[in-house]
Amino acid sequence: MARYFDVHPDNPQPRTISQIADSIRSGALIAYPTDSCFALGCQLGSRDGIDRIRSIRQLDDRHHFTLVCQNFAQLGQFVQVDNDVFRAVKASTPGSYTFILPATREVPRKLLHPKKKTVGVRIPDHAVVQALLAELGEPLLSSTLLLPDEKEPLTQGWEIKERLDHVVDAVVDSGDCGTEPTTVIDFSSGEAEIVRRGAGDTSRFE
User: Fold this and answer.
1) pLDDT at position 95
2) Name one GO molecular function term (predicted).
């Protein structure tokens, strides 16, 4: 049965954030809100967490997982960013964008796209996630909480708790959450390619 954490959306309670971070370090898979929609998240190196996300979402090995980072300095440890891409990504973060970029050796091989050796990264504009990332001190391995055969992500913490109670370890709820996933921009070739149009404005990449 999943633990349920009720977190203030603007002033996350430090004790609660610490409890959530401890559970992630202990191997927990969580459902949590972001500035786009709910996501599934686990510790960066958790093989069990990766397998469970794949199982819940029925993903194949070509799926791009996302490293949700606290800031640009952290993001730069895990992906290779040249000057032009740096400016484009920097201008769009924090925000509802996921960028696909060549991974550095810091990224576990299991997370990489098997052919491209790329990974998704993003910096969310969300107080609860930022507090959690600060407490963790490392990125959160994530994937949009979009269930198989459903067109829209789940948006209510109580509903996620009800439906995923036996497949996730914790649900973090901070009130209303969006229904639109991030906009995904693939920069792996050096040029911007819009892979998915979502919550982030795509005009600067067209």
Assistant:
1) 95
2) double-stranded RNA binding
